[in-house]
Description:
Elements: H1 25-33, H2 36-54, E1 62-65, H3 70-82, E2 87-92, H4 99-112, E3 115-119, H5 123-137, H6 142-158, E4 163-166, H7 180-191, H8 207-212, E5 214-217, H9 226-237, H10 256-267, H11 273-281, H12 287-301, H13 308-314, H14 319-327
Parallel strand pairs: 1-2, 1-4, 2-3, 4-5
Bound molecules: zinc ion (ZN).
Amino acid sequence: MKKCTRCILTEAFPNITFDEQGVCSVCHAWDKNWDAAKNKNLRRRYIKLFKDLEKSRGNYNCILAFSGGKDSAYALYLLKKKYNLNPLAVNFDNLFQTDAVRKWISVITKQLNVDLITYTPERENYLKCVKKSFEKTRNFCIFCNLGVYSLCQKIAAKNNINIIFSGSGKLEVNVISEHPELDYYKYAKSIFIDDNEIAWEDFKISQELCNMIKFELMGDVFDWNHNNIIETLNKNLGIEYPTKGLDYIHADCKIACIANYIYYKKTKMTKNEYTMANLVRAGQLTRKEALKKIEEEKKLLRKEPEYLEELLRLIKINRKEYENILKEDISYSPPWYHGHNK
Ligand SMILES: [Zn+2]
């Protein structure tokens, strides 16, 4: 399969073209759009924001959307230890968090002396939503992402907190809007527009609250070097990260790898290739390292994930139905994700 000579994207990437030197069109678009100076300004803006927040009254200065993954753990560490804020960590337990990650969440928040709120969505409705999103998009992650946004917004409103931070960043997803949470909600609503079976309470995003509460992506702004994050956490907190070696593939969730498995099966790409390509261009990962990680990931994804059987049982889809759903050709992620619409 043809591969870009500069990043790692292959001809499987939607609408990709290659120039005479074998450099891909996504690399060329990157050169036009990526502005390191802008990133520096962003960093300055954040540091000022943290200083202002430090002076804010109330029990908490901000909320951190805490999945337990390495990026949000690092964000929590920065907020608390480096910028002396008092964040409230909010965890949306999507029913599929691994026990190791649940334990790690509890240990790391205690270690950092940060208050934690964990919320589990209403089970039957949530499983129904997982099933529906799988049927419509081949992706299990829509309602989880939405649940995180919605929960953080509700808790922020209740505690008079006007800012929510997340550990994700633009190298990871292609977020361009000021209110990714509202875009996401509209996207989900548009997919399930005629569906009256979904109870939206756990996923609702309010336009009015979006105007009052800011949602900020911390990823990429603070030397977000993916190789060093886990080392920094281990060294400074003295706790071993539970999913060592698998940190880049969402090992905190039991069904994220199933979504990735299906994505790979259908597109011949992994969900991480776009991110990895960005990291290579941003100089945070060498091309060789990225190719190695993707190769390791593909090796894992060639085998059916062990948890698939259990998931299908939980969402009441039999093997035959599962195979049939996979045969249909439709979109796999929100249109703005991974630059697919560029
Ligand atoms: Zn490229």
